[in-house]
């Protein structure tokens, strides 16, 4: 597929893959849920989907060309490390996807460790339940910062357009998958988490215990957490007994879209201890 054809089809490829994975995960959650919801699902879904609609609109307005178009331009100019190395295309594709995934892992880690960034990211963690729509619930400012980081990574790496599109589709699909409130057989989960972040693995990251929140940062590949010592196999309270979300944002009013958008400036969680209960 030529770069021109790819750029023309890119929005439809991404939209089709997004809707397909969303519908499959939503049906799976109804068929085999891992946990019973603690709040009304319809209201949560309405507001969480509202967040992703707003995020998508802002990205298209402020980055009209998009990451894939940047990859096509970088490829055409021969910029970046991969362009200089002259590797076979399939190696370039593989390296680009893995390195971009590592960049997103590092970004996620930083959004937990830098207080100002955490104020943006905690909107994602304040969801009192975790399901497929939690994978869409990111503050618009976090999405824009993430896009800026991605742009710098593509430029430095010289990631070609096909690699960027593949990475974007994989990242979106795995985020929907690993936030899913779905049940997997334990043996299958143990095998899958060797190559991809599973729902049980990522659910630990949404525990309200801070030491568990600061673990399992991966969205796609699970190897970074094992490599950097942030992997945690299971939550201390068990998947049925664990509490999802943040201590400071248990009130149902924080489910509203307008309240979510204002959450980074809320004084209710200015005390770092208010974000999480004291670990056991």
TrEMBL record:
GO cellular component terms, A-Z: membrane
Q: What is its main location?
A: membrane
GO MF entries:
iron ion binding; oxidoreductase activity
User: InterPro entries annotated for this entry?
Assistant: Fatty_acid_hydroxylase, Sterol_Desaturase_Related
Q: Where in the cell is it found?
A: Membrane
Supply the Pfam families for this chain. Answer: FA_hydroxylase
Q: Where is the signal peptide?
A: none
PANTHER family found in the cross-reference section: STEROL DESATURASE
Put simply, this protein is called Fatty acid hydroxylase domain-containing protein
